[in-house]
Design goal:
Elements (H helix, E strand, L loop, with lengths): L2 H55 L3 H14 L6 H25 L1 H5 L10 H8 L3 H16 L3 H25 L4 H9 L1 H21 L10 H39 L2 H15 L3 H19 L3 H28 L1 H6 L9 H15 L4 H7 L3 H26 L1 H27 L9 H22 L3 H21 L1 H4 L1 H14 L4
Keywords: Cell membrane, Membrane, Transmembrane, Transmembrane helix
InterPro entries: Poly_Biosynth_Transport (IPR050833), Polysacc_synth (IPR002797)
Membrane topology: Multi-pass membrane protein
Length: about 500
């Protein structure tokens, strides 16, 4: 893909990811202020269980469709697209229906996993949400197909904008009306079926356009279709296990904190961890925009192009995510005070996790390269090792250090996972970035938001006023410095590519 295409796809993904992260951050704020630490802890426990189940039921088919559909399009085998989509969706729906029925019958046991106040109707909550789990899985798989077919905008608009905005609006209305936890969870789930229907309609239209009048690459017989199915599930099944491990890594610590401590401390930790993950918008945007390109490059054995994409994205991740992480680290109490009384107790945990994520961002999109290179089994081994480290350290540290113990366990886990993936991508696939190419993108945020943030904190404290001053003054200085060094950072090339692409589009 041209630099203009990469820049355009990246910009669309970034805008959508920033919007989604901002709205989800807002959901955390209104839930924290509306339900308090105790209610927030129960809310995020329920969301954790829901998301874990939904991701497990995806069976890895969402990533499989990104890889195989983009590979088929890149090599002109458009006739494989419909069989690929059927191969992915049918098992997800069937397995999901069976497991949904089982979960419905095991409602008391599932409700028993939640640590909540006695007055919280946990069984009612589980029965209310279980039927929607398979729908969430289907949405992810359908959006994976649209990404594989080259539609970055579909995923961005539906997953990163429509779904979180719908949830934010409905939860806000519910809280303003004096709703409790159950009604807030209802508001959280309502937008899902609407977005799922829209996604299915868009995918059907994309498939019709891609396969209309095209016979190239159509499997000649049932045996060819079986071979395609084996190839798809050979990759996706390993990815499905890896994705299950990955989502456990993201949410199991919230459940462990709730089990060992209390719903209130689980709420504090959930807000801390969600705040840190808001900084992953650049990585998420890059994954959505660049994953099909990396897959296509590796399918053509074009390692040089895959390496170029990796370097461009890694520099952007450092340049754009480090300011956020450094602000979180310097002004943790002020930022957490936004969520309401009691949440600032997680300040030390937020500092630890923010600095860890900054270092992880410097490794680049190593997970995406592994997956798009067909190394899902490697990633599975990495994630399994990381999950073992995470659970083991949480069980040991949370009873002793509380929320800070969970943060330390999380930091070590991220370090293990990222180091393994970076080594595999470098040594096993020949895709890497030299430290020298990251020197300038790292130096600018360290100067402005690191050194500048510490100096400002010494003068005005770590409260909300420091956050506002750093955001406004530091932001202006940072933008000016980025513009001064735009050639060395590659910003001028991206801007020129976007401008040429816009001018090349004829007026309607």
């Amino acid at each position: 893909m041209s630099r203009g295409g990469l820049a355009r796809a990246g910009l669309i993904s970034l805008v959508g990811a920033v919007t989604g992260a901002g709205v989800n951050f807002g959901i955390g704020i209104i839930v924290g202020r509306g339900l308090g630490t105790d209610g927030t802890g129960t809310f995020f426990q329920v969301i954790a269980v829901f998301i874990i189940l939904a991701n497990v039921l995806e069976l890895g088919a969402d990533t499989g469709l990104v890889r195989f559909c983009s590979g088929s399009v890149a090599t002109g085998r458009n006739g494989e697209l419909r069989p690929l989509v059927r191969t992915a969706i049918v098992p997800v729906v069937c397995v999901g229906a069976v497991l949904t029925a089982a979960a419905w019958m095991l409602t008391p046991q599932l409700a028993g996993f939640l640590s909540a106040s006695p007055d919280v109707p946990t069984e009612q909550i589980v029965r209310m949400l279980v039927p929607f789990v398979v729908l969430a899985s289907l949405l992810a798989v359908v959006l994976g197909a649209t990404r594989g077919l080259g539609s970055v905008a579909t995923f961005t608009v539906l997953q990163n904008v429509a779904l979180p905005v719908g949830r934010f609006v409905l939860i806000g209305i519910a809280l303003l009306a004096g709703a409790g936890l159950v009604d807030v969870l209802k508001a959280w789930i309502v937008p899902l079926p609407i977005v799922a229907v829209i996604a299915v309609a868009i995918l059907a239209r994309q498939l019709a356009r891609r396969t209309r009048g095209r016979l190239e690459g159509v499997p000649e017989n049932h045996e060819a279709t079986r071979v395609l199915r084996r190839r798809f599930w050979g990759f996706s099944s390993a990815r499905g296990v890896s994705a299950a491990v990955e989502i456990l890594l993201e949410w199991v610590d919230v459940l462990i904190v709730a089990a060992f401590l209390s719903p209130a401390e689980a709420g504090i930790y959930a807000v801390v961890s969600r705040s840190v993950r808001a900084g992953q918008v650049v990585q998420q945007a890059a994954r959505v925009a660049v994953a099909p390109m990396v897959s296509a490059a590796l399918a053509r054995n074009d390692v040089a192009e895959a390496r170029r994409l990796f370097v461009v994205v890694t520099r952007a991740m450092v340049l754009m995510s480090w300011p956020f992480y450094l602000m979180l680290a310097c002004f943790a109490p002020g930022i957490l005070s936004i969520f309401g009384p009691g949440f600032a107790q997680g300040s030390n945990a937020l500092t630890i996790m923010s600095l860890t994520m900054a270092l992880a961002a410097a490794a680049g999109m190593v997970q995406t390269v592994l997956l798009m290179g067909g190394k899902s089994s490697w990633q599975l081994a990495d994630k399994s090792a990381a999950l073992g480290v995470n659970v083991g350290l949480n069980v040991v540290l949370v009873p002793v250090w509380g929320v800070v113990g969970a943060a330390v366990a999380w930091a070590v886990t991220v370090a293990v996972d990222t180091s393994l993936a970076a080594w595999q991508v470098h040594k096993g696939m020949g895709v890497h970035v030299s430290p020298a190419s990251l020197a300038l993108p790292a130096a600018l945020p360290l100067l402005v938001f690191g050194a500048g943030g510490l100096a400002l904190r010494a003068m005005v404290g770590d409260g909300l006023s420091g956050v506002v001053i750093m955001l406004l003054a530091g932001g202006v200085v940072y933008v000016c410095l980025c513009w001064m060094f735009r050639r060395r950072l590659g910003i001028d090339t991206i801007v020129s590519s976007l401008r040429r692409r816009r001018l090349s589009v004829p007026a309607s």
